[in-house]
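Issue: ligand-bound run for flavin mononucleotide - logging full I/O for the record.

Environment: standard queue, default settings, no custom constraints.

Inputs:
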Amino acid sequence: MSTLRTALTELVGVEHPVVQTGMGWVAGPRLVAGTANAGGLGILASATMTYEELEAAVAKTKTLTDKPFGVNIRADATDAPQRIDLLIRENVRVASFALAPKQELIAKLKDAGVVVIPSIGAAKHAKKVASWGADAVIVQGGEGGGHTGPVATTLLLPSVLDAVDIPVVAAGGFYDGRGLAAALAYGAAGVAMGTRFLLTQESTVPDSVKQEYLARGLQDTTVSRKVDGMPHRVLNTELVTSLEHSGNVRGLVAAARNASKFKAMTGMKWSTLVRDGLAMKKSSDRTWQQIIMAANTPMLLKAGLVEGNTHAGVLASGQVVGLLDDLPTCKDLIDGIVADAIKRIDALGALRA
Ligand SMILES: Cc1cc2nc3c(=O)[nH]c(=O)nc-3n(C[C@H](O)[C@H](O)[C@H](O)COP(=O)(O)O)c2cc1C
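Outputs:
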């Protein structure tokens, strides 16, 4: 099979320009190793893991693959520096960030030879992290699942490509070879996919929950601010509809209850949650209510994505869910996408008169 060589495959040392993103509760060792062994870049999600769980997940992933992989870190977590030391010590190839990491953290990772790829949602943020030394960025358009912005990939991607000279990986709405070929045509160095990888054989999301996703159409997601105060693209479920119609006080009481469960589960002290909250408050203009809601999100996602309780949980999803109707292995998925993208690129070349 012929392959595609891009700035991303060169930078990271993977075979294919396809990234599986760091989805909380979903991107664990099995999925990450499945992606890595199929020649893509798999990224472990650590925002929903304790430090010890992350340590164990990195070790487990290494037993399942000897290919490069990445770890997604919440840059605003109080133990982010400790997690970064772990990545360096364990020779993890890629550090991915949902929020822009501090300049010193980027420099430390780069000095140790770790490739730094933050996710961003606007050209100005891409410029900022590029000026701080980020090696590449993932840009997620509004179609994408989880926290998302208002601008579609078709417009956000070129705006970011025009703003920076580092490799740009396109995310939000990708699932097939046409999408990869289109992203490369824009000038991107590859695609990153969340929802598509959630719906694979290697994903550990309960089968009943995968079936809920597969049953959905293109218009069956909502961007809700009621989950944690920030725009979050999720499947339309009864719970989401009721959150959307609930008053702020009821939402806050439920959120505080969930924040307390998250604390018990992760063994975090209230002082750590408060310290994280204060750090978030300093770095953003969120209200206390939003900060309690932010601690609430992991519990709502866990109920759905790990425990399979779709009535109590929130199911983050991109709009692309409406076009998915199968559960391939990571290898079949990536091989199919790359082979089809190559066919499309050849067909485009043949259009020249
Ligand atoms: C179930 C789910 C959980 C997610 N969790 C995270 C997360 O913890 N951190 C993060 O940076 N992005 C998270 N995302 C966003 C994805 O990493 C990715 O950017 C997005 O899914 C891309 O859009 P797509 O779903 O159209 O492929 C999540 C997405 C989904 C669907």
